[in-house]
Specification:
Fumarase C, Chain A, domain 2; two-stranded antiparallel sheet; 18 helices; 6 strands; elongated; binds arginine; lyase activity; L-Aspartase-like; cytoplasm; EC 4.3.2.1; Argininosuccinate lyase
């Protein structure tokens, strides 16, 4: 086979079943531009070490530019006989530069150090795209919070009525995990900007090539410290897969809130027509498919992480062909998030909230009982007693079928002499949220401060 990167020591070519199993061009072709960037850098290292004349370097660069353009336009594609992107591109280079010049480029490099470098370059680019997608979603969250600075909703723990909170506080609670994901991507990028190029197959190069030059040309910080580690390690890929899975989980938890809020029973939110779907049989239906797909795709990106970790766990240190299996899961996570994030941001940006209904439901389920207990504590009552008194008031109101705010002065003192009419100050949802003004609390003033901090952290990441 003309284009193969190996074969001389074999009496026959690969069996068709082997070629079929081994071929990776159907998924590794996305690495072609990075492979060519690596080749440009490698040519510079060969030139610096005296293996290419000025003229040869020029010819090599011209051929690589031509190949790059042909890959971008689709004029050059993988052939069925190409084992992987590296083999296909060497074939393309030789077609353009001739066998004499094109055949010089492979000196001092292996597909093992190439692939370990290229996957980093690819992921670094996509980390930037995903970062941008998360930033747009944080923007949408912040805009909704800003548009509803005073809206109060029922806060729930165990999905049961707990305490009234600001809608903005709840929305921003979904912003913080995303900000941490941005910070994770930034921290990961610093670790990923290392170049295994120059490690060869496993043992390094004997040709006096400068791996730091290659790293610099590729925009990476420095070469790998250890050629074995550089070619064999995939923790940088697994860590990216983890961050992707965490982003998936964070979107999924937000999605679950939206799905609940969008039910008739909650009735907190209406999704924009452009960001909801209908039913083929039930004409009235309007479904939150973006949120459901987010929840579903979280399972998929978690699977990509666990599959990759399972691939890595038993591998002796050095390159093994199993490592070819690192790419499909992480490429899938990238594609999944890059499709999901813009849709999710659009859904959030266009959601309409029924703030009246939220406010109506906010005091239900005796959600102001903690405020009564806290008020008693501020009057000097020990919390243990305050908890008992407030609990007794809940029971008395429940027996009468009324809310805490409907209790008469007589009922209040009947439950406890400590329950003076002034307690009514905290028996409104506005009074309740305003009183929770400790750091990180749901008081409007704290939530506004928090929002400024959220925006600053997102921008810094
Ligand atoms: N296509 C391989 C991969 O994705 C790189 C090629 C290494 N093959 C080899 N026989 N050393 O990991």
């Amino acid at each position: 086979n003309e284009g193969a990167l190996w074969g001389a020591r074999f009496a026959t070519g690969p069996a068709p079943e082997l070629a079929e199993l081994s071929r990776s061009t159907q998924f590794d072709w996305v690495l072609a531009p990075y492979d060519i960037a690596g080749s440009r850098a490698h040519a510079a290292a060969l030139h610096a070490a005296g293996y290419l004349t000025d003229e040869q370097l020029q010819g090599m660069r011209a051929a690589l530019d031509e190949l790059d353009a042909d890959v971008a336009s689709g004029a050059f594609t993988a052939a069925p006989a190409d084992e992987d992107v590296h083999g296909a591109l060497e074939r393309g280079l030789i077609e353009r530069a001739g066998a004499e010049l094109g055949g010089r480029l492979r000196a001092g490099r292996s597909r093992n150090d190439q692939i370990a470098t290229l996957v980093r370059l690819y992921l670094l680019d996509h980390a930037r795209i995903i970062t941008h997608g998360i930033l747009r979603l944080v923007d949408a969250i912040v805009a909704q919070a800003e548009a509803h600075p005073g809206a109060i909703m029922p806060g729930r723990t165990h999905l049961q009525s707990a305490q009234p909170i600001l809608l903005a506080h709840h929305l921003q609670a979904h912003g913080w995990p995303l900000v941490r994901d941005l910070e994770r991507l930034r921290d990961w990028s610093a670790r990923a900007r290392v170049s295994p190029y120059g490690g060869g197959a496993l043992a390094g190069s004997s040709l006096g090539l400068d791996p730091a030059l290659v790293a610099r040309e590729l925009g990476l910080d420095r070469p790998s410290e250890n050629s074995l580690d550089g070619t064999a390690a995939r923790d940088v890929v697994a860590e990216f897969a983890f961050i992707s899975a965490q982003i998936g989980v964070d979107l999924s938890r937000f999605a679950e809130d939206i799905i609940l809020w969008n039910t008739r029973e909650f009735g907190f939110v209406t999704l924009d027509d452009g960001y909801s779907t209908g039913s083929s049989i039930m004409p009235q239906k309007k479904n939150p498919d973006i949120a459901e797909l987010a929840r579903g795709k979280a399972g998929r990106v978690i699977g990509n992480l666990t599959g990759l970790m399972a691939t890595l766990k038993g591998l002796p240190i050095a390159y093994n062909r199993d490592l070819q299996e690192d790419k499909e899961p992480v490429f899938d996570s990238v594609r999944t998030l890059e499709a999901l994030l813009p849709a999710f941001a659009g859904m959030v940006a266009t959601m309409r909230f029924d703030t009246e209904r939220m406010a109506l439901l906010a005091p239900q389920g005796f959600s102001l009982a903690t405020d009564v207990a806290d008020w008693l504590v501020r009057q000097g009552v020990p919390f243990r007693d305050a908890h008992e008194i407030s609990g007794a008031l809940v029971r008395a109101c429940e027996a009468r079928g009324i809310g805490l705010e409907d209790a008469s002065d007589e009922l209040l003192v009947e439950v406890s002499a400590h329950l003076q009419p002034a307690v009514r100050d905290v028996l409104t949802i506005e009074g309740s949220v305003a009183s929770r003004d400790g750091a990180g609390g749901t008081a409007p003033v704290r939530v506004a401060e928090q929002r400024a901090e959220l925006v600053a952290r997102a921008q810094a990441a």
